[in-house]
Write a structure and sequence with these properties.
By secondary structure, the chain is mostly helical. It has 2 domains: 3-90; 104-350, MetI-like (MetI-like fold, Orthogonal Bundle). It has 14 helices and no strands. The protein has helices spanning 3-46, 51-56, 62-71, 78-90, 104-139, 144-158, 161-175, 200-206, 210-247, 250-257, 262-292, 294-299, 305-314, 318-346. Helix 7 crosses helix 9, helix 8 crosses helix 9 (210-247) and helix 9 (210-247) packs across helix 11 (262-292). The two termini are 27 Å apart. Belongs to the binding-protein-dependent transport system permease family. Its main location: membrane. Pfam families: BPD_transp_1, BPD_transp_1_N. It comes from Microvirga splendida.
Length: 351
């Protein structure tokens, strides 16, 4: 066999490999999303909430009740309802919200940027402080610094975030007046800019409305810091674990024997290898903040997806609840799969 033939065969094998992996990735994504839609739909049908009552009220006549029930397709067999819902969901149609009368996806497009803004800032806080603290705890293993970082992470995992939110509002807003109160922006500044991305910090900065920008920043800093603390607890713990594992490896011992400085051993060698699994940790932490900010948004009256789902659930608006839950679940699934893909790309050993 000639060298050109061998190269051509190797290229075809590589192409076939990547095509197979791509097909597998799409198949896993589609199967997971289908399972998510199925579980969400059937849970929504068995909960003791009647969407018809939410629309017509409890004093409507039986004739009106039955007519609306037929219009919603609730008189059909459950599997047929699921098939209809699945076809509509595939096109992004989750029905209309009872509360707003708007299409659910329109409402979600309006409120999701607020959740995205809050979770993104919280994740940045968790990464900026969590990784250095984790590294420091690993390097100073067994010291008071290590014990402090571990205690900080334990408190972040143990204390309910809604309690931290209430205490934060009481101390930093009501008592000290260091931050703004609940909400996303004071009414005074809400008409000074034109929503483009619906991410207030970004829109106000792009349009040069700095008074509105600073007001939005003072509103978001406390809830984002609480979410960042929750993220910090997870990231610092995992960073410490990864660094302890790397610092015990033979290549670190060899680097120290060669006379490399401790800072270079830690930052150029140990952290470089620990950063590969950290990508997955950060992605999962971000996904957790996107799906777990419901209580934070409720406490701070933050007009995001979490508060939208909570208000919809309290008013038996099941179309909105199912649509919002699916968006959060799909976001988590996609971020999880993307983090797994990045892990494989960054670490040749997994390939």
């Amino acid at each position: 066999m000639t060298s050109s033939t061998a190269i051509g065969s190797g290229g075809h094998d590589a192409l076939r490999f990547y095509l197979t992996k791509t097909v597998q990735f799409i198949a896993v994504l589609a199967t997971t999303l289908f399972g998510l839609v199925a579980v969400t739909f059937f849970i929504g049908r068995v909960v003791p909430i009647d969407p018809v009552i939410a629309i017509v009220g409890d004093r409507a006549s039986p004739q009106v009740y039955e007519r609306v029930r037929q219009e919603l397709g609730l008189d059909l067999p459950l599997l047929q309802q699921f098939w209809i819902y699945l076809k509509k969901a595939a096109t992004g149609d989750f029905g209309n919200s009872v509360l707003t009368t708007n299409p659910v996806m329109t409402d979600i497009a309006n409120v999701f940027p607020a959740t995205l803004e809050l979770a993104t800032l919280g994740t940045l806080i968790g990464v900026v402080f969590g990784i250095p603290l984790g590294i420091l705890a690993a390097v100073k293993r067994g010291s008071l610094i290590d014990q402090f970082v571990r205690l900080l992470g334990l408190v972040g995992y143990s204390v309910p975030i809604f309690w931290l939110g209430l205490m934060g509002l009481l101390l930093f807003y009501a008592k000290l007046d260091w931050v703004a109160g609940p909400g996303r922006l004071d009414v005074t500044y809400s008409y000074l800019y034109t929503p483009v991305t619906n991410i207030v910090l970004l829109d106000t900065a792009m349009q040069g409305q700095w008074d509105a920008f600073w007001d939005a920043l003072w509103h978001i800093i406390l809830p984002a810091s609480l979410l960042g603390y929750f993220s910090l607890a997870y990231i610092s713990r995992m960073t410490r674990s990864f660094m302890l594992n790397e610092l015990a490896q033979e290549y670190v011992i060899a680097a120290r024997v060669k006379g490399l400085s401790e800072m270079r051993v830690i930052w150029r060698h140990a952290l470089r290898n620990a950063a590969v699994p950290l990508v997955t940790v950060i992605a999962l932490s971000y996904a957790n903040l996107l799906e777990g900010s419901v209580l934070t948004e409720t406490v701070f009256a933050w007009p995001g997806l979490g508060q939208y789902i909570t208000n919809s659930l309290q008013n038996a608006d099941m179309n909105a609840v199912l649509g919002g839950t699916l968006v959060i679940g799909a976001t988590f699934v996609v971020l999880n799969l993307v983090s797994d893909l990045l892990y494989r790309l960054l670490d040749p050993r997994t390939r």
